[in-house]
Write a structure and sequence with these properties.
Length: 135
Amino acid sequence: MGNRKATPAASVDQFLAGLEHPFKADVEALRQVILSAAEGIGEEVKWNAPSFCTGEHFATMRLPGKVPLQLILHLGAKKRELPPYAIEDPAGLLVWLGPDRACVNFAGPGDVRTRASALRAVLRQWVRHVPERAA
């Protein structure tokens, strides 16, 4: 994986400082889980939420929605397929939305901390399938 940083973390820090969200502590905890999942993960604000990348973007938080906090996992800009069996998910965190994306829902306060270890394991596997950005 590359060491590409999308933009300085300061932009995400600024976004979170101004964020009014009932699960703000969980949003911040989720950010830390993602950043600690693998070497070289960068972050930026994209789609009006924290988004994370190695070479390509692979995870974006969804803040307003039916679920109070959701993490959308994807495989970058180009359409790719990732079969569900490619990711070991014994905790059943992933809800597959299509052949190239899945989500993890956090419905209650503290869900992120409770599921952090299982999520980190899923993320470590997921980033192996994200392509490097062409130089």
